[in-house]
Structures are given as C-alpha cells and as structure tokens.
Inverse folding.
C-alpha cells in the first residue's frame, strides 16, 4: 500500500572493520496523512530508521530495500538531492531542543536560515512576518524572535524547535523522542502541541518514541520495534487492545496510566 512515506523490505547494516552489524531487519511500513508512531526501547533501531528516511546515516551504513516519498525512491539520493528534500519536504524535530538550537543566534535568524536555503521567501519583511505567524501558531509571542535560546524556558525551546521543523512547510514531520526528559506537565503540553500541529498544518507526522503512552494517545497507527525488527504493527487502538506478543504485554504492564487517549478522531 502506498502513502506519503513507503518503506519496503529495508535492511541496514553498519560496517565496523570487516564485520557487518545488522541494525534494521526487513522492515516494511507506509505512512499516510496521519500520526504514525514507531515505538521501542532505547537501542532497538528506531532512530536509525528515522535517519535512513532523512539520509542522515553514517558513511559505513549499508542500505538494502527501498524508501519512497510520494512515490519517488529517495533511499538512493545523493547528498545534494537530500539537501533539497530535507526541511522542504520532510522536516525533523530532534529530541534535544537545546542542543538543536544555535546558542549564538537569535531565534529569528535560526528560522530564517532554512527559509532562505529553500527559497520559500526572499524579502526580510516577508520572512519576519511569516516567522511571527509561525510562532503564534505554536502559542509563542512574536517577541521570541528577538531572543536567544538561553532566554527561553524549556517548553518554549521545544516549541521553537518545532517551529524550525515546520518552517519550510513539509508534508511529513518527524518527531524524534519528543518527550524524553520532560516532566509530566511539559509532556502533556507538548503532546497537545503535536496533535495541534497535525490538525492545523494538515501534515503527516512520524513519531519516534520510547513513550508508549504518548504513542497510544496521539497515533492513528503504530509499530513496535525490538532488536531492529517490527514485531507488531497496526491500528493503535487495536494493537494496544490485542497485545499479541509477550514483549508488548510486559511493556504495557509497566506503563503508567497518566494520559488519556484523544477521542477527537
């Protein structure tokens, strides 16, 4: 089945010396205009999978299989071709917002960089007005544009990082471990922000997370990874209800019950 993103029989090995270490094992999935969550514990390969979509794997990675974006094979693109795709077609919100922001640049300059690179807007006035509207859509005041990252609260930093991911109007936005290290209040607030982005921006979202509760609350469909493989995949509500694998059952038994699944869909 086709979609905005389609991954077919993907295998990824890392060449370490003369040894090939298998990281991703025969993964197939597709993402439509939805929130799709890839769940799994640290080290299961989910961030490597996301990196393969963005062409951000190290040079010792060996990729077999195919990755398609809107029907076009992107797994064989050159770095120059990927530079056109990243940001403009597929956006990324990395897991560490503070590390993702340049401490030496005001927020307005950081938002302007990808906009200029992809020639979304050309005039300073146009970029400034667009940036103001972008921040306001994420419940940030326009004054944030003239601030440095260290002047922002943790929640504001996360929202600014999301703004950077959205700045060039991608069709697919990847959130890599969006709630890692957050307290419960910030976590719930950011979950609401992700859902709001999906509804208002009308884009597909790929959620990479170890947070099963977040995936259950936000996603339409999801996949569970273990040791480089997808061991369960399907509609989120059905997957969490049926719990076919013992591994998934054990994860759910350890999951706190603090978030309520959204019923707006």
């Amino acid at each position: 089945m086709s979609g905005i993103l389609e991954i077919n029989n993907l295998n990824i090995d890392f060449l370490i010396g003369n040894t090939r270490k298998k990281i991703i094992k025969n993964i197939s999935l597709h993402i439509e205009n939805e929130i799709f969550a890839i769940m799994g514990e640290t080290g299961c390969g989910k961030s490597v999978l996301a990196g393969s979509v963005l062409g951000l794997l190290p040079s010792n990675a060996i990729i077999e299989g195919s990755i398609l974006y809107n029907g076009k094979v992107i797994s064989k693109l050159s770095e120059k071709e990927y530079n056109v795709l990243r940001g403009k077609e597929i956006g990324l919100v990395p897991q560490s917002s503070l590390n993702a922001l340049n401490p030496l640049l005001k927020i307005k300059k950081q938002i302007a960089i990808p906009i200029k690179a992809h020639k979304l807007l050309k005039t300073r006035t146009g970029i400034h007005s667009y940036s103001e509207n972008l921040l306001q859509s994420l419940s940030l005041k326009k004054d944030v544009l003239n601030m440095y990252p260290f002047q922002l609260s943790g929640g504001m930093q996360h929202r600014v990082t999301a703004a950077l991911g959205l700045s060039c109007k991608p069709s697919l936005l990847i959130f890599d471990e969006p709630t890692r290290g957050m307290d419960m209040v910030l976590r719930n607030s950011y979950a609401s922000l992700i859902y709001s982005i999906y509804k208002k921006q009308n884009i597909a979202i790929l959620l990479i997370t170890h947070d099963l509760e977040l995936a259950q609350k936000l996603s339409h469909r999801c996949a569970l990874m273990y040791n480089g493989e997808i061991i369960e995949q399907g509609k989120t509500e059905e997957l969490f209800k049926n719990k076919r694998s013992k591994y998934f059952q054990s994860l759910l038994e350890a999951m706190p019950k603090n978030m309520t699944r959204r019923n707006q869909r």
About this structure: The chain has a mean pLDDT of 92. Residues 8 and 28 are 4 Å apart (CA to CA). The longest helix spans residues 184-201. The two ends are 22 Å apart (CA to CA).
